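re: that complex we talked abt at group meeting.

here r the seqs, copy pasted straight from the sheet so there may be weird spacing, ignore it
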Amino acid sequence: MRLRRVAAIVLRQFYLLRGSPARVLPLFAWVAIDIVLWGFITKYLNAVAASGLNFTATLLGAVLLWDFLVRVMQGVTTAFLEDVWSRNFLNLFAAPLAISEYVCGLVLSSIATSSIGLVIMLVLATGVFGLSFFSYGMMLVPFLAVLFLFGIALGIVGSAVVLRLGPAAEWFIWPIPAMLSPFAGVFYPLSTLPRWMQYIGRFLPASYVFEGMRKAIAGEAFSPYLLVLGACLAAADVVLASWLFVRVHRYTVRTGLIARYSAESLG
Amino acid sequence: MPDSVLSATDLRKIYGDTVAVDGVSFHVGRNEIVGLLGPNGAGKTTTINMILGVLEPTSGRIVIEGVDIAAHRLAALGGTNFAAVYAPLPGNLTVAQNLRIFGLIYGVRDVAARTEALLDQFELAGFRNMKSGALSSGEQTRLSLAKALLNRPHLLLLDEPTASLDPASARDIRGSIREFAARGEGGVLWTSHNMYEVEEVCQRVLFLSHGRILLEGDPRSLPREHGKATLEELFIAVAREPLSLERS
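got the structure back, here u go
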């Protein structure tokens, strides 16, 4: 892997962001709105509920972590879609650029863009609504790491879907996080779900993070084994997603789809 | 073919029941400009896409500078570059940004100096900070050619490079490409529908029809050899009566 080629992919995203407020604003605007909205909801719930449950830590913390995952995924897919929108595939894939270098560039771009969203969310959640990350303890770092890996995997899968099905398929990838969130138990324990949904939830690395988060806030013991399981699932998802992307790329080269990408299909 | 920069052997591409390229074999020598001619749908772009590694041949072999592209894609493409009217550089980046990014991807050593030299060569220096999408089609073509020469390729593929240029700009571009082929170590595979241009630039032409090479030779003598007055007449004959030429 040549770092200069990876850097070129990242540099392209930097140039695009630097010259376009329309690209910079979404990096933090939607997550900021989410945090403000949920911040006031949790404040209200803390005032009226007699349960003694700290809604700020449970609900607002869950929103923050879920939004981080979504930003990571969209960081990958948006960087990929920039090449779709500018019809740049022929220039890129006819160049000496390995698929691993290209995907690595997308992931590094996502780290940069999702970090901006994370910082804004942390500042708002802690500074305005008093969310204390001390309540998560040292678990915060592995929580973020697992969500980051899962977000990367989802972003690569989303990119593979668009590569395979054509530019119009981008509308398939935006709802992916919303479709997964009920199964991941973002706002409630997995045990709340019907059994069939629990089975699906157990395959989602994010569900281990949110189960762990709730236990950490409640001061209950959470088996590190479960978090390791979540991390292993997330790492496996990244490997599987990368494998899928490579397979789809090979398919597009074999069928000629990549050379005539705007046609969407060759049928 | 020891001094070939490109060697294509028995290339074939089949889509379902359609044979797009049917057993094509040719080479491009060092310092040589070879014209790949033929009517629309003859298989020119399919052949170029296979050489660029964005389309897998159904069968056959492509070797660039001694490197088999199927086995060592990155090494083969490292010494290759291309310009095509249907592959403009991203319009939302400036001229200089595009050249810098592709300079990095192609492993150009001193990208900044190389970019400056190409901006001067293709008279793009005044547009360096302009978004590529805001350039005229002729300026975009010059930018694509500048990108195509970034890595001083040993194999340069040009798919109708002067299609959107005015006659004066087209002549300048032809001059640049001829100079590239004469002075450097590269060879050029050039497609064009402008037969005047092909006669002026190419040392050798290959006529493709229905995915097969029908004729091959010097563009200045080939028409006479087949009873035609000009290369354009020969082109029209290839397009309309390929079977009669196949028999001749």
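couple things i noticed - Chain B has a mean pLDDT of 92. The beta strands of chain B are 4-15, 18-29, 33-37, 59-64, 67-68, 80-84, 155-159, 187-191, 204-209, 212-217.
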